[in-house]
Design a protein that fits this description.
Elements: E1 5-9, H1 13-25, E2 30-33, H2 36-42, E3 48-53, H3 63-74, E4 79-84, H4 89-97, E5 102-105, H5 112-139, H6 146-159, E6 165-168, H7 175-184, E7 193-197, H8 203-211, E8 212-213, E9 225-226, H9 228-231, E10 236-240, H10 247-259, E11 261-262, E12 271-272, E13 276-281, H11 285-290, H12 296-302, E14 305-308, H13 319-333, E15 338-341, H14 343-351, H15 357-371, E16 375-377, H16 384-395, H17 400-410, H18 415-421, H19 426-435
Helix pairs in contact: 6-7, 13-15, 17-18, 18-19
């Protein structure tokens, strides 16, 4: 069975030999034990999916049921097959309550036990997949690609600390969702998460908005008011679009991070604040720092833990799950029932490079729902710009490096125009050029 194993618990050697031979011939991998302690220890292995409890191990009456309950308590995803010498309706009901999945009576028919084990394996796989889906729905993050699993695992570790976090990624990759996930997984989860859109606050309102003000601090300040940083005390502050913050604002935020205190307008004394900072940007702050457009000292303060979100075109294996998620969401909210996307339409969605990432995918699907297609989304239902871009991509070189070279050559190596032609950001273009070792000096000419 490859990654899955069946754990057989039984003390009577002839029964162990017979059952082991039967299950091995049916293609199952067997782990045998007669020790209760070893049995429970083996349940921690992800390879064990089914436990077969033989008829003789328990010395006392109903001991098999108690053991089955212990197994389910130790690992909820493991299925239990109970083999009994005698059967009754009361025993069957008790077995069900103890969490037994399959109940087999002696004497065993040749195919009876392998069939029961096979049913249990299908059940555990289904339960685990459902648990993964529930977890994805609970944290708002859709997708089980390698990239998403790695990011989730890193967030689990990062969230347990109080380190500042910098989340980077193109527009539409869901940076705010991941900031919320960092907060939800942290010890600050029961305290506020306060979001500040750094691009939306002018310098003239910054101090009042972030630090608050005292009564009479300025005309119209009729009462004392806390700012957003104080509101986030003992919680998390999310600085969205930090790359768009002005030099003046950057200096103010840096001072808060260094001194861990704020000062209200009109107040002479500092007020301690305990906040964790999560910042997000679609810009390259390191590059902006080298251009003196972003403070290097602030960048280093923010970039303690760094999470980079890949664009949707680099994790297209998550596309079906995302499509299914939005189909269900819009079917519910817009009350238009669409069950599926046709294969040719899905092929086009896969071919498209999604410059707007998940946000664009969501908007495309919502616009289709607004048109009210019947029961399924076909190729004709997709927006014109998606059709056109798919046709363009089919005419381009098949590999990403080839498309990069094509765009650079077509624009006489104007990087801004090449990025626009590929629907990439300049930061993505530079990253791809470095990855594929592409430079004009090498005079690489794309074939065809």
């Amino acid at each position: 069975m490859g990654q899955s194993a069946v754990l057989l618990f039984e003390t009577y050697a002839p029964f162990v030999d017979r059952v082991s031979t039967t299950l091995l011939h049916a293609g199952f991998e067997i782990v045998r034990t007669a020790s209760r302690d070893q049995l429970l220890k083996n349940l921690s292995s992800r390879r064990v999916r089914v436990v077969v409890v033989g008829p003789s191990p328990p010395a006392k009456r109903n001991g098999g049921l108690e053991l089955a309950q212990s197994i389910r308590d130790a690992n909820e995803f493991v299925s239990v097959v109970l083999v009994v010498a005698d059967s009754s309706e009361d025993l069957a009901i008790a077995a069900l309550r103890a969490g037994v999945n399959e109940y087999v009576r002696l004497p065993l028919l040749e195919e009876e036990l392998p069939a029961a084990v096979a049913r249990c394996l299908r059940l555990t796989e289904s339960e685990e997949a459902h648990a993964v889906a529930e977890q994805s729905a609970a944290d708002g993050i859709i997708g089980e690609s390698s990239a998403m699993r790695t990011i989730r695992a890193r967030i689990e570790k990062i969230a347990q600390t109080d380190s500042n976090v910098l989340i980077t990624g193109e527009t539409g990759t869901g940076k705010e969702l991941f900031a919320e996930l960092v907060h939800k997984k942290s010890r600050r989860r029961n305290r506020p998460l306060v979001t500040i859109n750094c691009a939306a606050i002018p310098d003239s309102l910054l101090e009042s908005e972030l630090f608050g003000h005292s009564k009479g601090a300025f005309t119209g300040a009729d009462s004392m008011q806390d700012g957003k940083l104080k509101a986030a005390d003992q919680g998390t502050i999310f600085l969205d679009e930090i790359g768009d913050m002005s030099p003046y604002s950057q200096a103010k935020i840096l001072r808060v991070l260094e001194n861990k205190e704020i000062q209200r307008l009109g107040c002479a004394r500092g007020i301690p604040v305990d906040v964790r900072v999560v910042a997000a940007t679609n810009q390259d702050l390191d590059q902006l720092g080298r251009e003196n457009k972003f403070r290097r000292d602030l960048f280093f303060r923010l970039n303690v833990s760094h999470i980079h979100l890949p664009p949707l075109r680099e994790r297209k294996e998550d596309l079906p799950a995302l499509v299914d998620h939005y189909l269900e969401q819009f079917s519910h909210t817009l009350r238009v029932k669409i069950k599926r996307v046709t294969d040719d339409a899905l092929d086009c969605l896969f071919a498209y490079d999604w410059p707007g990432n998940i946000r664009e995918l969501k908007n495309v699907l919502e616009s289709i729902f607004a048109e009210g297609p019947q029961r399924e989304i076909t190729l004709q239902d997709l927006p014109v710009h998606v059709h056109r871009r798919c046709a363009e991509l089919k005419s381009l070189p098949g590999d990403e490096r080839g498309r990069l070279l094509w765009a650079l050559a077509a624009t006489n190596w104007n990087k801004s125009e090449a990025a626009a032609k590929l629907h990439w950001s300049r930061m993505t273009l530079y990253r791809k050029m470095e990855r594929y070792n592409v430079s004009r000096e090498q005079e690489i000419v794309p074939r065809g």
